[in-house]
Design brief:
Distance between the termini: 25 Å
Number of strands: 17
Shape: globular
Radius of gyration: 22 Å
Largest sheet: 8 strands, mixed
Strand content: 15-25%
Structural class: alpha/beta
Length: about 450
């Protein structure tokens, strides 16, 4: 039996807000943690013939679980793919991603389509990968079978998704889907924007398509408020079905969310790195790479999102890594209105949150709670992911909290190296990433000699 031992003087263990010395014993064949000693075991106390991972002065963290990622394979592999997307994730300490049902072709709206996606992912993944299913008009008969096939939940859109093969649903569609799912062990996720404004032929005719404010005004806070009002109203009709708001951007929707949670509705909420790190006033004209839906809003809005994250109104943070080709971003034209809406982030999230969060008194324990513990629970993986605990997968990260680095295009590991973070100086750097005790990323050697070893969950 192969024994792997990981030890360090600064380890984040479950149910602790502070770093402490620890020695983690890993059974190599299973990749499971079998013992955790809350002290440093010296060499003479270690079993003979072990593989030793010594973090030295660096921090040992549980691997991150990114529960909102678009890997786009099959069908749009010029946008991203399992190989490049999971490589990028591993370089940022993410050890599990949950792939969204779009923008792959076909989308994950039936068991047959899920099988196609899993076959595409096989042998390509540097991290573990789980899958969300999708709810679209007319696929309600497939939902229970998808639950049985292992999807972690279902995503739907209340506004057009941007791709023809994944249309949005209306209230009638939702009643059918929620009725079907209400007694299943699953969660329904909502892209929560709903446009109730009457059509206007003069809408935005005089507006400048290169101005970020034009785009921001086209996706107002009211869209998110409308959507969350509908969702919480439907929850009173289907109270057994947990519902989730993906990528909340509007702080003006927070009172609705607080009221829903206070009323006991099974509602959870995520926000994204870009809503916590970027703000509208700092996005120049023609900066298409900062476009996403819902939009990045004002600096004052950003601070209210941070407050809601700290008080638990917002449950956790994800990337919503939503890449596309450079051409679709319309960078040369500066056409914000016409560009694809999505931000590429995989590999940067931990550093982004630490850089911004440490300025607001946020601890690394809070960040891991938001990006690992609670995201694992959301994706139904909390029995094996998100903690350095006996019986869990030995997914861990060696991290230097004080290292600073500049984000360059060359440093990005996703396919299309287009991101609003290029040029930023960030703090906190992943040195090594391990999945089930085996190294998948080393900052010095990168991915040299590493083969994809991620599992499909």
């Amino acid at each position: 039996m192969t024994i792997i031992i990981c030890r360090g003087s600064q380890v984040l263990l479950p149910d602790s807000d502070s770093l402490q010395p620890a020695t983690i014993i890993i059974e190599g064949d299973s990749g499971k943690i079998v013992e955790v000693h809350r002290r440093l075991l010296s060499d003479d106390l270690l079993p003979s013939h072990v593989q030793l991972i010594d973090a030295g002065p660096n921090v040992i963290l549980p691997g991150l679980v990114d529960a909102h990622v678009h890997l786009n394979e099959p069908g749009r592999t010029d946008w991203e793919g399992f190989y490049t997307g999971t490589k990028a994730a591993a370089s940022g300490g993410v050890t599990t991603v949950v792939d969204m049902p779009l923008n792959s072709i076909p989308p994950t709206v039936s068991v047959e389509n899920l099988s196609v996606k899993r076959a595409s992912a096989h042998g390509q993944c540097f991290t573990d990968v789980a899958f969300w299913g999708g709810v679209i008009p007319g696929n309600q008969s497939h939902l229970k079978a998808l639950v049985e096939a292992g999807v972690k939940g279902f995503k739907c859109f209340l506004i057009e998704s941007g791709v023809d093969e994944f249309p949005c649903v209306d209230e009638e569609d939702l009643n059918v889907a929620m009725s079907s799912l209400q007694n299943e062990p699953t969660t329904l996720l909502f892209h929560a924007e709903l446009d109730n404004t009457p059509p206007s032929s003069s809408k935005n005719e005089e507006s400048d398509p290169t101005s970020y404010s034009t785009f921001l005004h086209s996706r107002p806070d009211a869209f998110e408020i409308n959507a969350i009002s509908l969702i919480t109203r439907l929850q009173t009709k289907y109270p057994n079905l947990p519902c989730h708001i993906v990528h909340l951007s509007s702080s003006k929707a927070l009172p609705l969310i607080r009221d829903a949670k206070a009323a006991g509705l099974k509602l959870s909420v995520e926000t994204c790195f870009h809503y916590l790190c970027l703000f509208a006033e700092n996005i120049p004209r023609g900066e298409t790479i900062a476009k996403c839906c819902p939009p990045i809003r004002e600096a004052s809005n950003r601070e209210l999102l941070w407050d809601a994250l700290k008080d638990g109104t917002i449950d956790f943070v994800v990337s919503d890594h939503s890449p596309c080709t450079t051409e679709l971003k319309k960078i040369d034209e500066g056409d914000v209105m016409g560009a694809w809406g999505g931000i590429s982030t995989l590999g940067l999230g931990l550093s982004l949150l630490w850089t911004e969060g440490s300025q607001r008194g946020i601890s690394i324990a809070q960040i891991i709670d938001w990006t690992s513990v609670k995201t694992a629970k959301h994706a139904g993986l909390s029995e094996r992911k998100g903690k350095l605990q006996t019986g869990y997968d030995a997914d861990l990260v060696i991290w230097d909290p004080d290292a600073e680095f500049a984000v360059t295009q060359e440093s990005l590991n996703f396919k299309n190296k287009v991101s609003p973070y290029v040029g930023l100086k960030l703090r906190g750097r992943v040195e090594k990433t391990f999945i089930r005790g085996s190294i998948v990323y080393d900052r010095i050697s990168g991915f040299d000699g590493v083969n994809p070893s991620g599992e499909l969950l």
